[in-house]
Amino acid sequence: MSLDLASLTFLLVEDSAYMRTILRTMLQGFGARRIVEAEDGASGLEAMDRANPDILILDWVMPILDGADMVRMIRSPNNPFAYIPIIMVTAHTERSRIVEARRLGVHELLSKPISAKSLYQRVSSVILHPRDFIKTATYFGPAPREIRNRQKIWQAGQGPEPAEGEQSAAPIG
């Protein structure tokens, strides 16, 4: 199935011009026509106001304001972009980073080096499988996805606890 991405606006926030070119070229290959770029989190926040993006793709490690800090600012219930789907790109894929991405409210994690297939899968996921947002005392972000083996991924302090009768799930996977 091929998605029509021509009507969507993407915001790429990445400090590497080379990586922005790769991401932009892949998105254009998928049919995206409205792609706005920023080189760090601070300029990314400014670009959000101007571009009103539908999907945010950002790097984790950047100068001035990194991706994690940018997500923390966006995932405030009062932020007009609080509900935007976020795909975080990183070369740091150790378990602690994955858990942190989940705690931040990131929809999808994309590890470098990226492939066109993996980027398309993440973009497709946020479009075809939108998630409701939940708010707890310690978390605001997309509701966890159900996982196949139904393990209890959400531990105390690692994110929202499932409501009574709900399955435990992991939002990054």
From TrEMBL:
<dbReference type="Pfam" id="PF00072">
    <property type="entry name" value="Response_reg"/>
</dbReference>
<dbReference type="InterPro" id="IPR001789">
    <property type="entry name" value="Sig_transdc_resp-reg_receiver"/>
</dbReference>
<feature type="modified residue" description="4-aspartylphosphate">
    <location>
        <position position="59"/>
    </location>
</feature>
<keyword id="KW-0597">Phosphoprotein</keyword>
<keyword id="KW-0804">Transcription</keyword>
<protein>
    <submittedName>
        <fullName>Response regulator receiver domain-containing protein</fullName>
    </submittedName>
</protein>
<feature type="domain" description="Response regulatory">
    <location>
        <begin position="9"/>
        <end position="127"/>
    </location>
</feature>
<dbReference type="InterPro" id="IPR050595">
    <property type="entry name" value="Bact_response_regulator"/>
</dbReference>
<dbReference type="InterPro" id="IPR011006">
    <property type="entry name" value="CheY-like_superfamily"/>
</dbReference>
<keyword id="KW-0805">Transcription regulation</keyword>
<dbReference type="GO" id="GO:0000160">
    <property type="term" value="P:phosphorelay signal transduction system"/>
</dbReference>
